[in-house]
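G., before I forget:
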Amino acid sequence: MFKDIEHLVRLAAVIVIALVAFIAIRAAVVPKTFGEYGHYRAASLDDIAARPISFAGHDVCEACHTDVVDQKKLGRHIAVPCEACHGAQARHADDPASVKPPKLDTAVVCARCHEANSAKPKTFPQVVTAESPATPAINRIGPGSKLKRRQETQRQVRKGRGKWTSHAVISSCSCHPQL
Amino acid sequence: MDLTRRHLLLLLPSAAVAWKYVLAGTPEAAPNYHRTDHWWGMLIDIPKCIGCGSCVRACAEENDVPDGFFRTWIERYHVADWKIERPQVESPNGGKQGFPPGQESGGKNFFVPKLCNHCEDSPCTQVCPVGATFVSPDGVVLVDKSYCLGCRYCVQACPYGCRFINPKTNTAEKCTLCYHRITKGLTTACCEVCPTGARQLADLKNPKDPIHEFLRTHTVQILKPHMATGAKVFYNGMDGSVR
């Protein structure tokens, strides 16, 4: 009955070798965690989550700068998060002693939000800085004079007509100390 | 050592705590974050957006987005009177430096911030031939850049134009909903810096999240609902002209 079995054995051997090769190659090629949650590499979730942060978050700022929180409460910018104006400060939060955030130029920072635009909500306070009487003449030259504008702002600050980042001022712009 | 009943009772709770950490993966990476407890989305309140571009700048800084490419951007719409089907849309440099004042007279103008909609049934993940992009267990559409071939199928498949090929890595890139932040209990960079609160991160699985109350009480839309993508970025006060 099993007289001519040899060719079947050979065929079976080929199939077994192919199967072993397939399993070996698959184990080597497919990443370890592939398929754990779905058709992707589960370890990539941890890879993506491991990225360091740049923005510390206002809770972290407020943990130390409690005086600023109190000052902010007096003004209208109470709900504006710190890093909206001050930029990413995670490095400062990690090492407050050696990493100091740069001083802000209120002429630039205020205009970022309050420069007039017909698409802004009508109830939002807006100003055309180029036409604003409170703007020093040098600011009205227009674009391309950022350096001059900064120098002029610094001059105003030295004269005591503006303040840098005191958050009593954040209740308004240095150009409008009356606000 | 003889294991008495007293010893066993002392050992069991500590073993249970240890096992919890084993299940959570590396404890340093995510001490208290359980992926299946969340289902992330975002709320965008269009009447609050002032087009300042803070979100675009913050996103670029937080995620090292190359110049000229955007994971989030702002569009300025101008709809002339009744021409709702033909709005004029502009987005100079993605709104990164804000917007020029606008010279149009009449009609209406408004800003629309855009980003990945983190669709439940996302067209982009369905076309990926290698499983490099996927919907995470917490509902965020992510790209595994070490596995991406850069074949660009997903870039074409996204109906919202939210993907691009990073010229440095030659792999697909998109908004991760700041996955590295939300898994640490922080909000996204764009929501963190939004001065008017026009963007808010929403956890749809958390019954205490204010999103549920908001969705109940406001007229909220998603982009391109006819595509049935299950978009999870909700727009409040969105005009019908927005595409």
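The mean pLDDT of chain B is 91. Chain B is about 25% helix and 20% strand.

More on Monday.
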